[in-house]
Amino acid sequence: MSHHHSNGKYAWQKTPRVDPPKRAARERTSDFREIYSLLDEETIRQQASRCVQCAYPFCRTGCPLGNRIPEWLACAAAGDFLEAAALSRSTSNMPEICSRVCPQERLCEGACALNARSEPVPIGAIEKFINEYALRRGVVEVTNLPPNGLRVAIVGSGPAGIACADELAARGYEVMVFEALSRLGGLLVNGIPAFKLEKSVVERRLELLRQRGVVFRTGVTVGQELSLSNLLTEFNAVFLGIGAQKPKPLDISGAQLKGVHDALPFLIEKNVGISPGGSPIAVKDKRVAVLGGGDTAMDCLRTAIRCGASEAVCLYRRDLANMPGSRREYQSALEEGAVFQFLTNPVSLGSDAVGRVTHVGCVRMELGEPDAKGRRKPFPVPGSDFLVETDIVLVAYGFDPVPFPPGNDLAAIQRTDWGGLIVDANQMTSRPGVFSGGDMVRGPSLVVDAVRDGRRAALGIHQYLSQRQATPHQRDEPKKCVPV
Ligand SMILES: Cc1cc2nc3c(=O)[nH]c(=O)nc-3n(C[C@H](O)[C@H](O)[C@H](O)COP(=O)(O)OP(=O)(O)OC[C@H]3O[C@@H](n4cnc5c(N)ncnc54)[C@H](O)[C@@H]3O)c2cc1C
């Protein structure tokens, strides 16, 4: 291996892009461990030196967090991994997680200027390396500003809530996180499979928040045991980050048949080991059909393969070019043996005498002209009906925000027609002092978007409470601990 780290702007001409080692498909499908390992220090330095340090770094604008990518690449190229990690942490509350789950090909790496001439810098792999380097050496800062006497409640422990909690604790706020489930982490733990993000990585991040003084309360559903108004009497502000986890319904005939399941309970059962839907879903030696083409569909296919499914087929109504799921995950699913049937729209489910699903009735689609958003609408090809035989159907058609029962004070907050909370530029909802972000505002989105919203909300809360403190008649007394 050569030792040219500082061969200036032209390193990329001599050094091709290197991706981190990926475990062989046959090996990785026999467990749920992460599939990539870290690049070595020498390769990281060489790869970081491929960055041309553009005057207008598109990678930064391509990142929802505006990560200071060229700056930390320069540090990494010089071998100063700790400084690189510190810069990386300055704009992200969980860079070791984003580096694992971001679709970099659509974000930073997709925007890298080298795409025009060569291949982009492996930004995600370098972000993972520098942050693992710092975390494993225990040099990640967890000291806060002195306590400011203000208290904030965070509802939901997904990436939006975690990012908001982390930012506020660092600014001297007393922060308490309320989580409905017994496990913390939101979809980082209960959605995204361990082969993309090992659970211990999320636990390590949560431990850093505990060191910051953030208090976590599990098994508390806000809106049931505890109302929003209760929270607002005990806390100076509230952040709602409860996501969007209501599955979009499958409205074709046969949707109620035995063997037809929603994606999320399946993923939770196989990844976390508990069965939210009651009895476990057996897929060993079964044929599994996954409906949908997003991240959730990819994860279902790859999880089914790891659980011994004899066949994992994705039925998606558009083509590969118009599929929303990440290309990297699609590639991994292919390697692991998943089969993709594009331009295939499921229109009915058939069953045997005891009501178990036996096949998916499908119709072939073709794509029309691009619409205003550039997406091509699929149309059925007349007379093209065909059957796909199967034993298990997993529905991955996306999610909507969970509605609140009328009368609940959460239901009084303004929402869009599809149920997303409406927020202003500071992430504040229609109820003063109540902020929100992540999937609850955007609908199903990305971890990095949730982190961005959580950070912006923390800043919004800080500004909102600083203004109120400056106005004496509105001043809130610090409140006592909420008895839950
Ligand atoms: C299967 C799957 C795979 C995905 N893969 C990727 C990926 O590879 N890369 C990527 O960037 N994104 C991925 N995503 C999307 C990403 O996980 C989400 O966009 C992100 O987690 C949203 O964060 P959040 O904090 O808004 O909500 P969530 O992560 O959904 O967290 C919300 C939390 O609030 C809790 N909660 C709900 N109601 C209440 C209540 N009333 N009181 C208290 N707590 C409550 C929930 O239990 C949950 O813990 C994936 C999503 C799924 C479903």
CATH superfamily of the largest domain: FAD/NAD(P)-binding domain
CATH architectural type of the largest domain = 3-Layer(bba) Sandwich
Q: What is the CA-based Rg, rounded? A: 24 Å
Total individual domains: 3
Mean pLDDT: 93
Helix content: 25-40%
Number of strands: 16
- Biggest sheet features: 5 strands, parallel
Distance between the termini: 59 Å
Shape: globular
**Beta-strand share of residues:** 15-25%
Compact description:
The protein has helices at residues 11-14, 25-28, 41-48, 58-62, 69-77, 81-89, 95-101, 108-111, 123-136, 159-170, 187-190, 199-211, 228-234, 263-272, 295-306, 327-335, 439-442, 447-470; strands at residues 151-155, 174-179, 215-218, 237-240, 246-247, 260-262, 287-291, 311-315, 339-341, 344-351, 357-370, 376-380, 386-389, 392-395, 399-400, 434-436. It has 484 residues and is an alpha/beta fold. The longest helix has 24 residues, at 447-470.
Question: How would you characterize the overall build of this protein?
Answer:
The protein is α/β, with parallel strands linked by helices and 484 residues long. It folds into three domains: 8-136, Alpha-helical ferredoxin (Fumarate Reductase Iron-sulfur Protein, Chain B, domain 2), CATH 1.10.1060.10; 151-245 and 400-474, FAD/NAD(P)-binding domain; 251-397, FAD/NAD(P)-binding domain (3-Layer(bba) Sandwich). It is 33% helix and 16% strand. It has helices spanning 11-14, 25-28, 41-48, 58-62, 69-77, 81-89, 95-101, 108-111, 123-136, 159-170, 187-190, 199-211, 228-234, 263-272, 295-306, 327-335, 439-442, 447-470, and strands at 151-155, 174-179, 215-218, 237-240, 246-247, 260-262, 287-291, 311-315, 339-341, 344-351, 357-370, 376-380, 386-389, 392-395, 399-400, 434-436. The strands form four sheets. The protein has a five-stranded parallel beta sheet, sandwiched between helices. Strands 6-14-7-8-9 form a five-stranded parallel beta sheet. Strand 11 (357-370) and strand 12 form a beta hairpin. Helix 3 (41-48) packs across helix 5 (69-77) and helix 7 packs antiparallel against helix 9. The protein is globular and about 70 Å long. The chain starts with 10 loop residues before the first helix and ends in a 14-residue tail after the last helix. Bound molecules: flavin-adenine dinucleotide. Flavin-adenine dinucleotide (FAD) binds next to helix 10, strand 2, helix 11, helix 15 and helix 17.
